[in-house]
Amino acid sequence: MVENPTLIAILAVLVACGALAALAIVLYRARHPARREEDEMAALARQQTDAAARLEGMIKLLANGQSQLQRAVNDRLDSVSSRLGDSMEKTKQNTAENLQRLNERLAVIDRAQKNITELATQVTSLQAVLTNKQERGAFGQGRMEIIVRDGLPKDCYEFQHTLSNRMRPDCVVFLPDKRPLVIDAKFPLEAVTAFREAKSDEERKHAAARVRQDIGRHVGDIAHKYLIRGETQDLALMFVPSESVYLELHDGFDDVVQKAMRAQVVIVSPALLMLAISVIQQIQKDARMREAADQIHAEVGLLMDDLKRMHERVLKLQQHFGQANVDVQQILISAEKVEKRAARIADVDFGDDGGSADNIIAAPIARRLEAGG
Questions:
Q1: Is CATH 3.40.1350 what the domain over 136-291 is classified as, yes or no?
Q2: Where are the domains of the chain?
Q3: What is the pLDDT of residues 58-84, one digit of tens each?
Q4: Which end of the chain, N or C, is surrounded by fewer C-beta atoms within 10 Å?
Q5: Is the whole-model pTM more than 0.70?
């Protein structure tokens, strides 16, 4: 049995009470040594018996209380253990679900990180392309070729066409008058990049001057090399492969754009080039329609002749149908007459003429022959 501090304290109190009783008896003996010894012994024995009975009752009560306390503690421990187990199971499930969601989000983040890495690689590659002048020219050439190929038939344009002065522009588009429209895809981007990256006013001023100088020089080269009187169109297109660069030129360098226009060089962005290609396509379509106008007129005349002949033949067919209808009506009348004659013959109804049978049969035949029926 588990030691109980309360039981130990009660036992200590009882022992102290017994000791006090014994001390009282000793003192009493010291005063009355002979006369009351037996009474005292008897009283002491009764007191010990009562004390033992009370002690036994208290021990039983304590034992019952301890048993109840033990059961209550066990029940409480079982309840706490059950709730703790349920709570731990729920916590485990929640933790597993949270870990699953966390893994899914980490997977999404991982895919996003891969996409960002690929995008950064592509941006770095594009930056390298735009940094290298030759690769940047190839990039602009590629965009321009895609726009031209998507909008025009193959026989309406040519890349790297050789002109009479041995110059080879990036692209020429053949218009209905057989004079090619020149498109140049080489744009001086370094000056614009320097203007964008300038941090101070002085740097922006020098960069702006460089933009005007480089673009003006390139416009002059296009006008000198590709605009040939009588051979090419009166203007040429300078292709800028970036909408933002084109807008920046129009916003901050309108004088450069106007100077290019005066030099018969039009600066176009990808959107404007697509619009120009659409207009050229419509012009070529109209020219082909005009070239085929005589042939269309002849075909319409032949079509009208065919319609006239078909109308005449329909009228003839209608006449044939009318004559056939008349013939069918006459045949029906003759059939009815024959049917009536046959009925009269069957009924031996020869009428009142009193003729012989031969005359009765021969007379209708003669009349039919005279009528041509």
A1: yes
A2: 5-97, 136-291, 312-371
A3: 888 887 877 888 888 888 888 888 888
A4: N
A5: no
